[in-house]
Amino acid sequence: MRPGDAVEVRGNERAGDARPDALRPLMRRFESDDAEQAARLLDVLSPASVQTAESLRHRQVSEPERARRRSWVALEGVELVGFATAYLHWFGGEAGKGRIWVGVREDRRRRGIGTALWDAAVAHLRGARKHTVEVDDDPAGLSFVERRAFTQYDSEVISRLDPRECELGPEAHEGSRLLRLREMGGRHRELFEFYASAGGIPPGDPENRVTPEEWRRFVLANPLLDDEASVVVVDAEDQVVSLSRLLVDHVRARAENEWTATLPHLRGRGLARLAKLDSISWAAEHGIIEIVTGNDPDNLPMRGLNRRLGYRELYIRRDFERPAETRSQVPDGQG
Ligand SMILES: CC(C)(COP(=O)(O)OP(=O)(O)OC[C@H]1O[C@@H](n2cnc3c(N)ncnc32)[C@H](O)[C@@H]1OP(=O)(O)O)[C@@H](O)C(=O)NCCC(=O)NCCS
After folding, report:
1. How many domains are there within the chain?
2. DSSP of 196-228, one letter per residue?
3. Are 168 and 282 in a shared domain?
4. Between 20 and 30 A from 252 (CA), which of 17, 19, 243, 269?
């Protein structure tokens, strides 16, 4: 299927889908003009992250070739009713792991749209050794992946904060200084090195090694990264020691704490608190009404800090995997 080529979603004939052809949705590759509607769908189905039309377009073109990112839409007329995206993990870590996400508008489910999008994604990832998916708080999503023989391997605790409700005050930090990310100017190399030292770039197979330029294009050039709201802490020698990045959707007044980290040997001194608190105050002052974040369940220090900052834990987002050649209870299509 090339861009622009559309195929009909066949529906579930076993279940008696007798709709005339004209009413059946079409599926085709994602195009730039689909981004607004896709972002609206993700806003509902993927509430723990922030995406806008602009960030979806950026993601589509900012990853290196080895990611093989491809996305699809399901359309009823001009209305987008489903979206899928697939890529190979490329940002450090194990090579050959394919990631898939499929979402269908709630009022259009159980008509075969999810399966059609899924099959296109699986066919695109041919050659991958594993498939991985994540499921938010959605029973239909859970049963969909369980029927495809996925097993859970990880999870994240999803929390939310209304920044206007954060009551914690700042504490003085002798020798440390807060800078807005914007004030870091062209100090990209230092930020990249901070990322590597603080665990932001997972070590991995040689073919998945992240270059500074790949990191810059994907992380720093993300249009959602707000360089006023994102904060860096530097020590007395002007070395980056802690950082808190905020992705902001100003239109929907939503934000995501995408990554907060301190250099390992300086943890436990309140530096992340200093950075995150400043970012939260900025958000409150700029009309943001929700900040979402995800944490490893074992990351008790960060979960404790979030609780003190006023975050409420909402649900567990689960990560699943399966060997790519698995036989699922429902046969994956051949695309
Ligand atoms: C998972 C999701 C994409 C499925 O979308 P969908 O369009 O309902 O998918 P389908 O219609 O192809 O299949 C859904 C189920 O309905 C069944 N079904 C399909 N058409 C049907 C019909 N006409 N009548 C009854 N059942 C039907 C299918 O057999 C399938 O069952 P299974 O999951 O047990 O195999 C959708 O629930 C969703 O958007 N969830 C939120 C996002 C998410 O969690 N994604 C999963 C991670 S990839």
Report:
1. 2
2. HHTTSS--B-GGGPPPHHHHIIIIIT-TTB-TT
3. yes
4. 243
